[in-house]
Amino acid sequence: MSSLCFLGTAGGRVLVFRQLRASGGLWLESNGTNILIDPGPGSLIRCLENKLDPQKLDAIILTHKHLDHSADVNVIIEAISEGGLKPKGILLAPADCYDNDPVVLKYNRAYLEKFIRIDQGFKYQINDINIEFPLRHEHGVETYGIKISTDQFKLSHIVDTKYFNELIPAYNDCDILIINMVFSDPMPYPHLCVDDAIKLINGIQPALAVLTHFGYRLWEKGIEPYIDKIQQQTGVKTIAATDGLKLDLENKSEMNFG
Predict the structure, then answer these.
(1) pLDDT digits (tens, 9 = 90+) for 50-88
(2) How far is CA 164 from the centre of its chain?
(3) Fewer CB within 10 Å, N- or C-terminus of the chain?
(4) CA angle, corner 41, sides to 111 and 10, nearest 5?
(5) Largest CA distance in the chain
(6) pTM for the complete prediction?
(7) 199/205 Cα distance (integer angstroms)
């Protein structure tokens, strides 16, 4: 079985730190291997609320160091390793999560089996899960999106970034495309908006597009009308993630997979 659980769908500071939506990251499970992506504020609580045991995690991925993506990483490391009594797990993260002004505490690193610095093009395999960080994003701190594949599915996750054309070839060839869409309209900040999502989905043409990491203004306006617009302009099945949403990554008929 392969599934993806959205432990939070908040993006931007206001929605996250007021917890108007949760910010726990994503939990990927594939045939008994478990990976937590971007454990933001409250991730441990969201794991437990969704009946997901952090001690079963094999790896954590940080796409970048901003607190809405990394605030609970040290808590999760301690939970995986029983406070360091049973060192366990792998952490994959950009170098600046470990080095200058680190978000991964130094004493905590001994609680892991490995901590790995990722960069553009880096590939890694954990059991049946292939992980690739194809492109450095334009986001102010060192940031990478993710491509994840197994024999059952191909998933691309475009995380925080401003739009640039190289995103499309970097994240193509996927069944499921997840996009962090913070804004409804273009803004002078390095985050994606509705028009950017349309360009990405049209260029990549996944079987399913899932939008998440919504900002306060977009959330306040209401997300669903924008989902309808995106679907109409791309012809691709598109959904807005909700807190606790669990996708069955192998149910291709339900997701209109080819």
Answers:
(1) 999 999 999 999 999 999 999 999 999 999 999 999 999
(2) 19
(3) C
(4) 135
(5) 53
(6) 0.96
(7) 10
